[in-house]
Structure formats: C-alpha cells, structure tokens
Specification:
Blueprint lengths: L1 H19 L5 E7 L6 H10 L5 H14 L1 E8 H18 L4 E6 L1
Antiparallel strand pairs: 1-2, 1-3
Helix pairs in contact: 2-3
Length: about 100
C-alpha cells in the first residue's frame, strides 16, 4: 500500500511540474541596414557580440546590406535586450547610426 501511495504522489508531482514548466519566450534580434555604418564594423559586431564565426558574420552582414534587415540570433528576452543594448552602445561609441531591434519568434 505504501508503494502505491508513493507512486501516485510521484505522478502528481511530475504532472504538476510538467504543467507549470514553460519555455521562456524567445526573441529574434535583428540588425537594420543604413547608408553610413561600415560593413567591417557590422561584421565585428556580429563576431564579438553575437559570437558568430567570420564566415557566418560576413553572410549575415551581406543579407543586412542586400535585404535591409538580418537576423543576428534568437535569444531569451533578457539576453536579446542585453545584446541590442550592446550593439547600440558600440555603434554610438564608434559614431555609427546602426539600428538593432527585437521581435517575437
């Protein structure tokens, strides 16, 4: 009897955990094209802020340049916000008007 009571309790606990666990919302971080920010700077930001390897950073930069916008990565809200703020700070410090934004996935 004790064993069956324990397994029922374990099932209830496991069921409650499954019901309450939710993936945190994820946001896509986007970089926008402008006519002033140097392409090399965009590649550096993609490598340093978003940890992209050089070839991938170059490809994303070309997408931004050609299509007007590019996806830098998908992150939880806090990380996405931090990365957007880092890009804005680096761009201002370097004298570029580079715009970075977030949107839901």
């Amino acid at each position: 009897m004790m064993g069956s009571e324990r397994s029922k309790l374990e099932e209830q606990v496991e069921s409650g955990i499954e019901d309450t666990f939710q993936e945190p919302p994820r946001l896509r971080v986007l970089m926008h094209n402008d006519h002033y920010t140097a392409m090399d700077f965009v590649v550096q930001v993609l490598e340093n802020v978003f940890n992209k390897p050089p070839a991938e950073a170059l490809q994303i930069m070309l997408t931004i340049h050609k299509e007007g916008i590019g996806v830098c990565g998908v992150y939880t809200a806090e990380i996405a916000e931090t990365k957007v703020n880092m890009v804005s700070t680096l761009a201002k410090q370097s004298g570029f008007p580079l715009k970075c934004s977030m949107e839901g996935v």
